[in-house]
């Protein structure tokens, strides 16, 4: 099971938001996140709010699309009644769990609910996560025909023993097949990788990177494995069956990822995320770029939904355990699908907790999140003490001196490895 929900104030049954959320709302994008909390098996490292078939307490996966559509309608009513301006959804993201465990018609129906109640902005980004073994060619075609624009495959590794340690069940040889199917359907493709798995060597990680790059996806994410308490992986490490991840090796793995991805014409735009640069095909034909020549990612291929999180935009999270944020107010839904469904059937908010962020907390979060992005922070937006810290960060080679000269705090590669420390020194 996922970790406990945060503490907070009780959430009102009608979901009504305080007046403060109206200020500046017209300038903020709105995203919709739909959490699909189902998995065929539970991966040993996973701490997400997901459930296998025998954990659903009588709830049926076949009922879920209707429940999610009901919350979409509830969300639209709450935002309108709270005085926010009507905004079309700029991004829609299906995450999980494994959204593609549901029939394509269910995902399409949920997207239809968003379209009907909010509308989709011109050029809206619509993404679903998928396991490589949970889709086929026709499934992806159906999604594309219904308006999905991206698919993010949980590749994690190309090395069988690493996948086995993570309890991932897909065949790594299936990755090229699903990528090609998605591309033929007209979907942009992202691949998610994890590094630092116990027993994974630097050569193993290089093999995974090179395999992922060979597929020429539009976007790649690479996340350091975090061992979460309560997971099967944590128990195996605690018992001595597996070694804990090595911080120094993980740092080496990150540097290798940035080097290989930069050489293959991908540019970083957030600490763990890279997107294709303007013309990677021409770059590949001309020869590999030196790692000292970072590329600017093409804005068409970045995850605009994830950028909205890092930039403090508004989003409504649909589904069990989903979190939402609108104008400095954050809330979270009942975790278990049965508890969530009960509230939906009763016609009340599925939220079970809420907090209103004060100005100092919002500023702290802004620095923590924006400093992780390539766009970085405006020096002028920082408090005086934080501005004085910039010189020391340059001296420690944590931020780019050229960017600082023109008034922005942008992390160097070394700074990305120490991003939390940089954020602390700026607050």
TrEMBL record:
The keyword S-adenosyl-L-methionine belongs to this UniProt entry's keyword annotation: yes
Presence of keyword Cytoplasm: no
Name of the protein: Heme chaperone HemW
Location of the Radical SAM core domain: 24-270
Native organism: Naasia lichenicola
InterPro entries from the UniProt entry: Aldolase_TIM, Coproporphyrinogen-III_oxidase, Elp3/MiaA/NifB-like_rSAM, HemW-like, rSAM, rSAM_sf
Family: Belongs to the anaerobic coproporphyrinogen-III oxidase family. HemW subfamily.
GO biological process: porphyrin-containing compound biosynthetic process
A Pfam family this chain is assigned to: Radical_SAM
GO molecular function, one term: metal ion binding
Top-rank taxon, per record: Bacteria
């Amino acid at each position: 099971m996922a970790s406990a929900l945060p503490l907070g104030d009780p959430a009102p049954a009608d979901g009504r938001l305080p007046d403060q959320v109206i200020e500046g709302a017209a300038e903020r994008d709105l995203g919709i996140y739909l959490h699909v909390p189902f998995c065929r098996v539970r991966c040993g490292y996973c701490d997400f709010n997901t459930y296998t078939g025998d954990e659903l307490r009588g709830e049926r996966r076949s009922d879920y699309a209707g429940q999610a559509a009901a919350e979409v309608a509830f969300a639209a009513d709450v935002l309108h009644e709270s005085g926010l301006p009507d905004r079309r959804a700029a991004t829609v993201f299906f995450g999980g769990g494994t959204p593609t465990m549901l029939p394509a018609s269910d995902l399409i129906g949920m997207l239809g609910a968003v379209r009907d109640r909010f509308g989709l902005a011109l050029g809206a980004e619509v993404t679903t996560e998928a396991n490589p073994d949970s889709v086929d060619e026709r499934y992806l075609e159906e999604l594309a025909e219904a308006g999905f624009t991206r698919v993010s495959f949980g590749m994690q590794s190309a090395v069988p023993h690493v996948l086995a340690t993570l309890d991932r069940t897909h065949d790594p040889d299936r990755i090229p097949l699903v990528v090609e199917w998605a591309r033929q359907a007209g979907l942009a493709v992202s691949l998610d990788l994890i590094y630092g798995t116990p027993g994974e060597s630097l050569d193993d990680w290089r093999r995974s990177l090179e395999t992922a790059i060979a597929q020429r996806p539009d976007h790649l994410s690479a996340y350091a494995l975090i061992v979460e308490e309560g997971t099967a992986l944590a128990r195996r490490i605690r018992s001595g069956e597996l070694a804990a991840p090595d911080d120094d090796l993980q740092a080496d793995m990150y540097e290798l990822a940035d080097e290989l991805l930069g050489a293959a014409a991908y540019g970083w735009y957030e600490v763990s995320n890279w997107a294709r640069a303007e013309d990677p095909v021409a770059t590949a034909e001309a020869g590999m770029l030196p790692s000292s020549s970072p590329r600017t990612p093409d804005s068409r291929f970045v995850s605009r939904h994830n950028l909205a999180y890092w930039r403090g935009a508004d989003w409504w999270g649909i589904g069990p355990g989903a979190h939402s944020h609108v104008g400095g107010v954050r809330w979270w839904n009942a975790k278990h699908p049965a508890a969530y469904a009960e509230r939906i059937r009763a016609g009340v908010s599925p939220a079970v907790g809420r907090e209103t962020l004060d100005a100092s907390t919002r500023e702290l979060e802004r620095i923590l999140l924006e400093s992780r992005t390539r766009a970085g922070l405006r020096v002028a937006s920082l408090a005086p003490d934080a501005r004085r810290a910039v010189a020391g960060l340059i001296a420690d080679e944590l931020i780019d001196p050229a960017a600082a000269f023109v008034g922005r705090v942008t992390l160097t590669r070394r700074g990305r490895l120490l991003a939390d420390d940089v954020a602390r020194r700026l607050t």
